[in-house]
Amino acid sequence: MKVVILAAVLTNYIVVCQAFVQHARLSTVKVANKISSLRMGFDVDLTGKVAFVAGVSDASGYGWAMCRNLAAAGATVTVGTWPPVLKLFQRGLSQGYGEDQKLPDGSDMKIAKVYPLDATFDNAEDTVDVKANNKRYAGLDGFSISEVAEQVKADYGKIDILVHSLANGPEVTKPLLQTSRAGYLAASSASAYSLVSLVQKFGPIMNEGGAVVSMTYIASEIVIPGYGGGMSSAKAQLESDTRVLAFEAGRKYGIRVNTISAGPLKSRAATAIGGAGTAKTFIEYAIDYLKANSPLPQDLISDDVGKAALFLCSPLSRAVTGHTLYVDNGAHAMGWAVDSASLQGVDIPK
Ligand SMILES: NC(=O)c1ccc[n+]([C@@H]2O[C@H](COP(=O)([O-])OP(=O)(O)OC[C@H]3O[C@@H](n4cnc5c(N)ncnc54)[C@H](O)[C@@H]3O)[C@@H](O)[C@H]2O)c1
């Protein structure tokens, strides 16, 4: 009798052990599958997503780099171009931008459509004067923000990504102390309110889970001599608006709103800041300063921003909103200019 009971207990024990081993094996397979699917999840695939990038007119700026990275991830990329430079850009596109247009697979990036856009106008009625009196707008129609949003809606239905990569300050070369009210308000209108208006008009045609990204500059927080005309003020507004829009548009449309605080790049717009009679232009000084004083003393390239924007526009940043992301080789973290003559003799790591 005892032997029978012992045999039964042993059999049960073996069955339990086998079940345990089987379970452990299955769990290992499940974990392995989970890890490999997570790894696959790191590949950003924006196939089927539509992006509208406002502020692209050549291949030298940050807007172009963001287009290229979004396109490389599979997104359909459309752009909004300021009417005064529209023909120039169309000519550039028809001639091609060579290496600057190449995607990692060797193909040329395609811009699906170029919409004329002047981000200082919200509605059709605001454009009556400029159409009548400015020959750089001759023959153009539908370039206010709400009209462009309507055209994009007619062409694509809804979009997923909205990029604001534009700025304009007519008195940028003047110190704030000499900036006129008109110059200050123009900088704010073109460089900050334009983001508010874009989110207002495009929010209703954005899919839930969509993302808005804009471009800012550290002069919003600390003093950068030469970045004048109220542009520093406009960038401070842009960053504050990013936080408020993140809340409002997050609740209303389920979209995210972030901004990238980028280091200096010799784009067309940055070159226009000028140099006030000095040997180098403002942007050349800014680039040299960045390299000499940043934690990472390396060249900053437009692709660095393009890739950061790709992250902010992709599901990888699903829970990131209202954020100012520095893409500046770490310059924002520095309190001292380590190449300053006053620091001679201090042991600074090269
Ligand atoms: N280049 C830099 O060093 C730097 C650094 C930090 C932030 N940024 C920001 O990056 C963004 C892109 O600038 P970028 O330097 O790459 O130069 P860019 O010349 O490539 O882009 C500026 C664009 O703004 C467009 N624009 C100007 N006024 C407009 C209007 N009223 N409506 C529509 N478009 C208008 C211009 O046509 C141009 O395409 C800007 O917001 C800029 O302030 C630039």
Which band does the percent of strand residues land in?
A: 5-15%
Hetero groups in this structure are:
nicotinamide-adenine-dinucleotide
What gyration radius follows from the Cα positions, in whole Å?
26 Å
Which architecture per CATH? 3-Layer(aba) Sandwich
General description of the model:
The chain is of the alpha/beta class. The chain has a single domain, classed as Rossmann fold. It contains ten helices and seven strands. Helix 2 packs across helix 10 (302-313) and helix 6 (181-202) runs parallel beside helix 7 (231-253). The protein is globular and about 65 Å long. The termini are far apart. Bound molecules: nicotinamide-adenine-dinucleotide. Nicotinamide-adenine-dinucleotide binds at residues 55-57, 61-63, 82, 85, 117-120, 165-168, 190, 215-217, 262, 264-265, 267-270, 283.
